[in-house]
Amino acid sequence: MTDLGGTLRRASLAPSSSADDAAPLKDATLLSFNQATAERASLADVIEACARHGVPGISIWRHKLAETGVEHAAKLLRDAGLRVSSVCRGGMFPAPTAAERSTRIDDNRRAIDDAATLGAEVLVLVCGAAPDRDIGAAREMVADGIAAIAPYAAERGVRLGIEPLHPAFAAERSCITTMREARLISERFDSAHVGVVVDVYHVWWDPERAEEIARLGDRVAGYHVNDWLVPVKNVLMNRGMMGDGVIELRRIRGEIERAGYRGPIEVEIFNEEIWQTPLDELVRLTKERFVEVA
Amino acid sequence: MTDLGGTLRRASLAPSSSADDAAPLKDATLLSFNQATAERASLADVIEACARHGVPGISIWRHKLAETGVEHAAKLLRDAGLRVSSVCRGGMFPAPTAAERSTRIDDNRRAIDDAATLGAEVLVLVCGAAPDRDIGAAREMVADGIAAIAPYAAERGVRLGIEPLHPAFAAERSCITTMREARLISERFDSAHVGVVVDVYHVWWDPERAEEIARLGDRVAGYHVNDWLVPVKNVLMNRGMMGDGVIELRRIRGEIERAGYRGPIEVEIFNEEIWQTPLDELVRLTKERFVEVA
After folding, report:
1. Which of B135, B184, B185 to mutate to test the interface with A (most CBs of A within 10 A)?
2. Architecture of the domain delimited by B26-293
3. What residues in B contact A7, CB-CB < 8 Å?
4. What are the residue ranges in chain B where pLDDT is below 50?
């Protein structure tokens, strides 16, 4: 279906149009730059670039905190005046033994501490895959894991955001693949403490997407934008800049807004070409596309 | 998660075990060899190999019919005594213009003719992707397309089998991604004429899989087995031989059997390494794994 790729490239920035679509964003007030979009840059450099380009929010990955230590990172963020929409990531609950699952719980507590220290609103949970073939058992381990950490997260003032991942990642990253499944787990807890993170890359295809976002209501704990490129090559690294793929971004934002969500919108793009882009150009382009098509 | 790959390779043939699992298959009576598993071989060679190895069924792809012509292919199949479980594929309904959609309908009628000539029980429908960003509109085009061809298929005695494809293919091959969605379309028609084809590769991750298979009941129009390899590289070509990946094959066959399905089970594997395997070795291995783990 190379035709499709061609058609989309030619009309790459023409958004879809429907009465249900959200109005264009007037400015970048809600923009949060997820650091994974600039994976090759240091945390300090990304913080500086966001401040320089007037990007108000940021999302921090834990492996990047090792560069500076969490306390120093918190100082850099405060000094730059950035809103920390989330920390990525907790989760990865399923493991073959009770001892290993317990180790994962401990690591999630440390992730909650990191989020609290950084003043992050949400800890994103990438739930993990089955250690064997039994995806049903893994789903139980996820629910048990969240139950084990939810009281501590509430105590530290960090909301947990369950992020369902695209079914292409079901065997390696997350046995939780649909918004419905994430919602059903989150409903075991107070919505103030456990919600669902909606990333367009993971959910755009879901025939029940609009209905499920409506059901989430105040459980929407975060909204991530990017795009689904055509043709798909490496499904992990197939994300593109908003406007370069097939996702109806304004349609989905309309759904999110009708659910009542008014929080930050993260731009999160795993893509080698994006990662090779010089940081200033990348942040400028992100802000431009955010306002133009997100 | 390379660990996972390692674990699975070591224990590659140990099936999952649960009271809900199907009993081991006693023999290859239900086996149908989908020709896509031997994409590099000619239709005549695959027919001969199936006959030689005592494989009772076959599924034929239309692009292979061009090699011999459909009438000659029908003769070869009859002479070999093979059961034709399905023809692949009809579908691809969405298109940007009414004229182009009408051309697709005509092609589907020819596919129905091919299936009737070959004595195939089912025409598999791979429904097609949106020609633009509007996946909702594409889904309507699919429902309209099936409505347009269903009467002709019934007249020719060919059952239509809607095959939901894995969401990784939503932008390029099929806007119909879940069993539920396929079932809801199929329910607009008599179950004798329109059903749903369940391919483990496309549905193994679905948290509502067992429930949806039960709801399908006599609408299960075909069952395809293979495996989901870890780690995923190219998602289109990531299928493996049964037993080499993470899919709980006997669990899903249990669900299919409880739904009442007693028809042929197709082995369909798109994988370059499988395609490079000499035909006799491939058919022998397929039969062996079918009995051992499917």
Report:
1. B135
2. Alpha-Beta Barrel (3.20)
3. 131-132
4. 1-12
